[in-house]
Design brief:
The protein is mostly helical. The chain has one domain: Helix Hairpins. It is built from four helices and no strands. Helix 2 runs antiparallel to helix 3.
Length: 131
């Protein structure tokens, strides 16, 4: 285990790290699902455009059914995408809250420790330049 990982596990509880990782994984899955829905909607739109009316301008049953099914699917997928976007917003708020907790713990840890690198440093000597 490298120093960064060691410090990380020392400052943050494993429960907090696991919770954050779970939320990140959920966001990744949600993003994939949203991408799938966008692709399905695009494909259904393309299918509707490909379907042709008959030469004489009358609407065939086949054309009507394809268009109707595609529109129903698009409507259903849009509702599902909206639900996923709401879920994404909730997960992002939870992630922000966990990140805030982690920042607070890190700052608390840094404030409670003396930082040796800063103790050895002094302000460089400054000189005044006169005109």
């Amino acid at each position: 285990m490298n120093d960064t990982e060691e410090l990380r596990t020392h400052i943050f509880s494993q429960e907090l790290l696991d919770e954050r990782e779970g939320i990140v994984q959920s966001l990744i899955k949600l993003k994939k699902r949203l991408d799938e829905l966008v692709k399905k909607i695009s494909d259904a739109d393309l299918d509707m455009r490909k379907a042709k009316q008959s030469e004489d301008g009358t609407i065939s049953i086949n054309y009507y059914l394809i268009k109707k099914i595609c529109l129903l699917n698009i409507r259903r997928w849009l509702i599902e995408a909206t639900t996923h976007e709401e879920e994404e917003g909730r997960l992002l708020r939870e992630l922000k809250e966990i990140d805030s907790q982690m920042i607070w713990k890190l700052l608390s840890h840094l404030n409670s420790k003396e930082i040796p690198q800063l103790e050895n440093k002094s302000v460089p000597k400054l000189s005044v330049i006169k005109d």
